[in-house]
Specification:
CATH superfamily: ATP adenylyltransferase
Active site: 138
Domain Ap4A phosphorylase 1/2 N-terminal: 2-146
Radius of gyration: 18 Å
Protein name: Phosphorylase
Number of strands: 13
Distance between the termini: 41 Å
GO molecular function, one term: ATP:ADP adenylyltransferase activity
Helix content: 25-40%
CATH architecture: 2-Layer Sandwich
Oligomer: single chain
Strand content: 25-35%
Organism: Photobacterium phosphoreum
CATH class: Alpha Beta
Order of helices and strands: HEEHEEEHEEHEHEEEEEHH
Largest sheet: 8 strands, antiparallel
CATH topology: HIT family, subunit A
Length: 264
């Protein structure tokens, strides 16, 4: 089982001190009846930034100590070296595929192998404007609660999005819902044929994926002020650099920031 293997690999990597968690202190902030989680990052963030400046592609080749398993024919599961959860998994394409190009059925088939567990949230950042820090195709997985779930499922999100719900998720159903969302939100070029072999570049967006629902969000920008937002923020979980950003976010408003990062 994927998560069982991941826990074992994470334990070994932690004991070898090669995992560098970036989130430490956390708080709960209530806003409009919703409790948001805000975590403050530690000094490992600087190590992540330095690695990003010196390493072109951490997934090709990947660090063998981060390897969890092969997932299907085209993907591998790796630990995130700089996790925000315990563990924090990445489903990466074996060969380079652009993060900003349209996902395919193989991506969903691999990703969903990690989603069909209790309390797992999958998230995807399609481009730098949507919070992606790497250009190599990767989908992410963590175990967490979703503070915004009630608002998501009740249709009360104050920004543009597409929501799909499932009794039992499968890759084909999720993939075709995804294609519908990309079309309806105008995230793919008009008159695009899905049968061509060339990769289809998309406008920026995020996906949140669980066993029972999928949320697609068109993005306008990856930040407001000095606070950056990726897909995980749209679950109601935030990461900030320091106490000053923590206090600023509370004053500014979590929902306000999320809304201003979404394409109108």
């Amino acid at each position: 089982m994927l998560w069982d293997k991941a826990l074992t690999v994470a334990k070994n990597a932690s004991e070898a001190q090669v995992l560098l968690p970036i989130a430490t202190m956390s708080s709960v902030v209530s806003e409009q009846g919703t409790d948001f989680f805000i975590k403050v990052m530690n000094d490992n963030l600087n190590k992540k930034i330095q690695q990003g400046q010196t390493q072109n592609n951490p997934f090709l080749p990947y660090d063998e100590q981060m390897f969890v398993d092969t997932v299907g024919h085209e993907h591998v599961c790796l630990l995130n070296k700089y996790p925000v959860g315990d563990p924090h998994l990445l489903i990466c394409s074996k060969a380079f595929v652009s993060q900003s190009s349209l996902l395919d059925l193989h991506d969903f088939s691999a990703w969903i192998q990690g989603v069909t567990y209790p309390n797992v949230v999958g998230f995807f950042n399609s481009a730098s404007e949507a919070g992606a820090s790497q250009r190599h195709r990767h989908m992410q997985l963590i175990k967490t609660t979703v503070p915004l779930e009630d608002m998501i499922l009740s249709g009360k999100l104050p920004f543009k999005h597409k929501l799909f719900t499932f009794d039992r998720i499968n890759s084909e159903k999720a993939y075709f819902c995804y294609l519908a969302a990309m079309h309806d939100l105008g995230l793919t070029p008009k008159n695009t044929s899905l049968n061509i072999n060339e990769p289809i570049e998309c406008l920026p967006y995020n996906i949140l994926l669980t066993q029972h629902w999928m949320l697609v969000i068109p993005r306008l920008t990856n930040h407001v002020g000095d606070i950056f937002a990726n897909a995980l923020n749209y679950s109601g979980c935030f990461l900030v650099k320091d106490q000053q950003q923590h206090d600023w976010l509370i004053d500014y408003g979590c929902l306000r920031l999320l809304t201003e990062c979404v394409a109108p």
